[in-house]
Amino acid sequence: MTTPPNPGIFASLLDPTQRADPYPLYARIRAQGPIRLGNAPVVVLSSFRDCAAVLRDRAATVERHHASMPLGPTPVHDLAGTLSGELSGTASMLFRDPPDHTRLRRLVAKAFTPAVVRGLEPRIIAITDAALDRAAERGELDLIQDLAYPLPITVICDLLGVPLRDEPQLRQWSTLLARALDPVSATTAGRTESATMVRANNELHEYFEQLVRHRRTRPSNDLLSALIAAEESTDALTHDELISTCGLLLIAGHETTVNLIANTALALLRPGHRHQLAILRTEPTFAGAVIEESLRYDPPVQLVPRVARDSITLPGIDIAAGDLIVMLIAAANRDPDVFPDPDRFDPARGDRHLAFGLGQHFCLGAPLARLEATVALTRFARRVRDPRLACDQIPYREHVTLRGPARLPLTFISIAPATRAS
């Protein structure tokens, strides 16, 4: 039996006052069980059991054309369609199921093997230390703008072979398009903002077109050159898939890691958790447990959509073929049926969470995101003496899905010089 929704509760997700702490709202939604939104072919899931089941179910597809209702009824959704076709959708593994998803993922996975990721650690350390050195010279530190934001974009650009001089422009495009790809917050965009995002999409598409043309004549030891070789030697990769994959790696690999680093640091800087920051300062191996708990407690991606290709039956609801399924991952990760005292940040819990998904679409970049967060947080903990939040009210970005702080200004006594031991 379907639980009738509480009128207006889902509109509350768009309320800017919910950004800082949406978890009480998630708890109210979760208490209603699986919900069908009126007569619309839309189902909202919020329990750990239901979300995990759908993430593993092959009947739940990421391919939007299986939806029984159009997913582009507004100008902003038309923008999403444009993005889907060129950067993040129909030509991208993010919106493809096997066999295409398997083929595309296999090509890109070579850049994220354990050996390749481990080899990136010295570079990640160098980027992190340079960011902290610059903050030491200025005598001020915003953990988002100075570290969490530049670190993953630099690493992704290194992987793709993007020239260092182009990184600021890539960062600007990524910021704009991440908002466009947020299926909830994008609905608040006005006509001018939508036009700006469309222009950013077109400019990013053209940028990668030019970079691909350059790499065809001057290949290098980077992921883009490897993907071009795959396109030229076999039918494993089309040109549209090549361009789309570049955009996906830039936006998905950047924006989510920014939030992971920021959300974890914010948890450790809260008054009740500062003893855990002190442990991390002296025991770097503690970082793994801290990051896994942060992924549960405050995940970088708060909700995930699927479409039911075939009917799916869950306790309390029958999902029909063509239904849009919205899984509130952030709500599921605080399900009290799975996590005792779920609103408490406790790194001793282990690594059970849905932040990186499950099944065939488990996040390909998870090992790299974990490494970047580990390096950033351990170097921060070891080098920055007595960091404290410089404001009581943390400003959040406009995103609902890709939720994280916009700024994280800190006070500190000093930043120690960088050494391998620091």
Give an overview of the whole structure.
The chain is an alpha+beta fold. The protein has a five-stranded mixed sheet with strand order 1-2-8-5-3, with helices on one face. It has a three-stranded antiparallel sheet with strand order 4-11-10. The protein has a two-stranded antiparallel sheet with strand order 6-7. The chain is globular and about 60 Å long. About 4% of the residues have low confidence.
Structural class: alpha+beta
Radius of gyration: 21 Å
Largest sheet: 5 strands, mixed
Low-confidence stretches: 72-89
* Gap from first CA to last CA: 57 Å
Describe the oligomeric state of these chains in a short phrase: single chain
The tally of strands reads 12
What's this, in brief?
This protein has 422 residues and is α+β, with helices and mostly antiparallel strands.
Describe the secondary-structure layout.
Layout: H1 23-31, E1 35-36, E2 42-45, H2 48-56, E3 60-61, H3 75-88, H4 100-109, H5 114-119, H6 121-138, E4 141-142, H7 143-148, H8 150-160, H9 167-180, H10 191-217, H11 223-233, H12 239-269, H13 274-282, H14 287-297, E5 304-308, E6 312-314, E7 317-319, E8 324-327, H15 329-332, H16 366-383, E9 384-385, E10 388-389, E11 409-411, E12 414-415
Parallel strand pairs: 2-8
Antiparallel strand pairs: 1-2, 3-5, 4-11, 5-8, 6-7, 9-12, 10-11
Keywords, separated by commas or semicolons:
single chain, alpha+beta, 422 residues
